[in-house]
């Protein structure tokens, strides 16, 4: 199964919201809170309905800046149509978005850039991605819109044990190598189907904070498939997943993969329209049932977002 979503840490919530909706043109799919810390927002960005493989989420907080290093996700990459790379390069220049020179990786055009908190991102030009659905805005033509994730890159001491989980539990397979990077691909849906592992034995370990990826979530169609994957993690790979947690829009289990990155397995169901109609996604603060009695106090403690969100 491919990537379900990526969750990262951010600083100022208004800057985060503006960057991902206005500058990158993603849809603001859900405004809620961190269920484990309701004093913090939890933002979800994606395509029109928040399809698995398109959703990038953030915990905006006052955390210190993170430090990239071994044991973490060092790059999150989005898909765009190959002819759109030039459009995005020009847009980054006009918007003053920090970016690097266009480069080739595994034969594909890659435009690396960073968000306001220093999170490492990239756009990857994909042939025929024009036919994939994307969320367009008044400012970004539909033909250039982001088409969800290409994938992630993990920076690890060693790839072997992590690769075993990717292939045995998640159904990925090794498809290529380039320098220190091993590429794994999932069958099926193109969105979120790539996991690259960069081996950096002995390098400094990363420290999570603003600009860091908190965890990577992989897809399970439903509870039954998630339970099967959990059993395999326990009995074949010696992992110790959490109990299932209800995240309202999906149900999740979590575990540390052997290199130290936090992995999640999230169900495709029930989806983001469970508490809002599709046309109104992201407009209101949505809370899980157990937090509704505290809504007034939660709303008063959260920062005010002074910008349009739809």
Please specify the SSE layout and strand pairing.
Elements (H helix, E strand, L loop, with lengths): L2 E8 L2 H11 L3 E8 L2 E10 L8 E6 L11 E10 L3 H11 L7 E3 L2 E7 L5 E7 L22 E8 L3 H9 L3 E7 L2 E6 L7 E6 L13 E8 L2 H15 L7 E2 L4 E6 L5 E6 L27 H7 L9
User: Biggest sheet, open or closed, and with what strands and sense?
Assistant: 8 strands, mixed
Structural class: alpha+beta
Spatial order of strands in the largest sheet: 2-3-4-1-13-16-15-14
The topology string of helices and strands comes to EHEEEEHEEEEHEEEEHEEEH
Q: Tell me the overall shape.
A: globular
* Count of helix runs: 5
* Proportion in β-strands: 25-35%
First-to-last CA distance = 31 Å
Could you estimate the helical fraction of the residues in percent? 10-25%
Q: Which spans have pLDDT < 50 for at least 5 consecutive residues?
A: none
Count of distinct strands? 16
Brief summary of the model shown:
With 310 residues, this protein is α+β, with helices and mostly antiparallel strands. The chain has helices at residues 13-23, 85-95, 160-168, 223-237, 295-301; strands at residues 3-10, 27-34, 37-46, 55-60, 72-81, 103-105, 108-114, 120-126, 149-156, 172-178, 181-186, 194-199, 213-220, 245-246, 251-256, 262-267. Helices cover 17% and strands 35% of the residues.
């Amino acid at each position: 199964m491919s990537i379900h979503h990526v969750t990262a840490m951010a600083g100022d919530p208004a800057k985060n919201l503006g960057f991902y909706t206005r500058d990158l043109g993603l849809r603001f799919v859900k405004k809620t809170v961190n269920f484990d810390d309701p004093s913090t927002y939890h933002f979800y960005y994606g395509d029109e309905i928040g399809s698995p493989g398109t959703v990038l989420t953030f915990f905006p907080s006052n955390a210190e800046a993170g430090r990239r290093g071994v044991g973490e996700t060092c790059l999150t990459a989005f898909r765009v149509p190959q002819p759109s790379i030039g459009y995005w390069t020009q847009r980054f220049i006009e918007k003053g978005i920090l970016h690097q020179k266009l480069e080739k990786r595994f034969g594909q055009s890659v435009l690396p850039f960073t968000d306001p908190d220093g999170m490492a991102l990239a756009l990857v030009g994909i042939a025929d991605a024009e036919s994939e659905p994307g969320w367009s805005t008044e400012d970004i033509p539909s033909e250039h819109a982001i088409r969800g994730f290409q994938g992630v890159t993990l920076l690890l001491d060693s790839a072997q044990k992590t690769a075993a989980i990717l292939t045995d539990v998640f159904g990925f397979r090794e498809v290529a190598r380039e320098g220190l990077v091993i590429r794994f691909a999932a069958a099926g849906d193109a969105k979120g189907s790539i996991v690259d592992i960069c081996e950096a034995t002995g390098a400094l370990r990363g420290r999570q904070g603003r600009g860091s990826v908190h965890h990577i979530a992989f897809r399970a169609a439903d509870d039954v498939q998630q339970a099967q994957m959990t059993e395999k993690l326990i009995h074949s790979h010696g992992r110790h997943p959490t109990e299932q947690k209800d995240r309202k829009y999906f149900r999740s289990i979590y575990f540390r993969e052997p290199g130290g990155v936090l992995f999640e397995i999230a169900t495709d169901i029930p989806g983001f329209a469970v508490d809002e109609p599709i046309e109104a996604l992201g407009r209101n603060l949505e809370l899980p049932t157990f937090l509704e009695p505290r809504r007034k106090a939660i709303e008063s403690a959260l920062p005010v977002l002074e910008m349009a969100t739809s």
